[in-house]
Amino acid sequence: MGLAGYPCEVRSLSFLFTRRWILFLLAIIVLGAGTWWLGEWQFNQLEKRRAANEVVRTNEMLTPTPVEEVLSPGEEIDSGDEWRLVEATGRYLPEDTVLVRYASSPSGAEGSGVDVVVPFRTDDGTVLLVNRGWQMRADVSGTIGEIPEPPSGELTVTGWVRPDGDGSSTEVVDGSARAISSEAISEAEDLGTTYGGWIELRDEDGRTAEPLEAAQLPTLDDGPHFFYGLQWWFFGVLGAGGFLYLAYDEWRGGPARRQERQGDKPPSKADIRRARRAAAKQAEREARQGGSRTQRESADSRR
């Protein structure tokens, strides 16, 4: 007898070696490997984010450092120096301004805009790229309003170090690009010796670059990676559990057992009502047919 007193046929496990079940098992293995890899990837991203957050926490507590002690001409920035606060003294080169298209607002405001990148020639002649801030497009057609001019004359700028972009998005066309690259902008604007990397402006001689929207430090949280990783692993466990359940069900008799159990179930009230209505209709038809035969027999006898 099976569970709950129902008889069932217990099969051997040979069905697992049929083509259908082998393909099913292979699909579950691929699914499990994929979900495991995706979960691991999410947890690796979580570790990277935590490491990056720690760098920001460390660097934001430091006092401004002279730019030449952190950046070098033509070299990539050290990963530990990202969001390091640096300062430089010199003059802006507004005629070489480059606009970064499709930039998002630092505060998360809706709408597209541009980042305004202005080269800054330091006292020793080396150029530093300064992202002075973000400006929203003037209208829905994408028109850019008047770009505010940077201060003239010598001044000191302070900002956070950021790494160069790469790929085709850094190409400068007609004074604009989609990402900031010190190498690409220096070559396009013929700037000469230029520091690798660039800075997000914090202030100019202690003042922000109004009306441009200033950059903000990144949000220091773990993001969604932890829960995404758990979800991927859960999907893998769910797939494996589903396979084991279906295999167990097949081993216990599968569809034949379910049909057998359904056949042993007592009829429901609805089934009884339908059966009664069908029986009543059948009796009514038979009665009508019996009456018709009686009338024909009477007519035949009168003849």
Topology:
Layout: H1 19-60, E1 65-66, E2 85-92, E3 98-103, E4 113-122, E5 127-136, E6 155-162, E7 176-177, H2 182-189, E8 198-204, H3 225-251, H4 255-263, H5 269-302
Parallel strand pairs: 1-2, 3-7, 5-8
Antiparallel strand pairs: 2-4, 2-6, 3-4, 4-5, 6-8
Can you put this structure into words, describing what you see?
The protein is 40% helix and 17% strand. The chain has 303 residues and is α/β, with parallel strands linked by helices. It has a domain of 143 residues. The protein has a 5-stranded mixed beta barrel with strand order 2-4-5-8-6. α1 runs antiparallel to α3. It is elongated and about 130 Å long. 18% of the residues are buried.
What does the radius of gyration come to? 39 Å
What overall geometry do the principal axes of the alpha carbons give? elongated
N-end to C-end Cα span: 69 Å
Helix % is 25-40%
Number of strands: 8
Strand order of the largest sheet: 2-4-5-8-6
Q: Please mark out the parts with pLDDT under 50 across 5 or more consecutive residues, or reply none.
A: 1-7
Class per helix and strand makeup: alpha/beta
Order of helices and strands: HEEEEEEEHEHHH
**How much beta, percentage-wise?**
15-25%
Sum this structure up briefly.
The chain has 303 residues and is of the alpha/beta class. The chain has five helices and eight strands, in the order H-E-E-E-E-E-E-E-H-E-H-H-H.
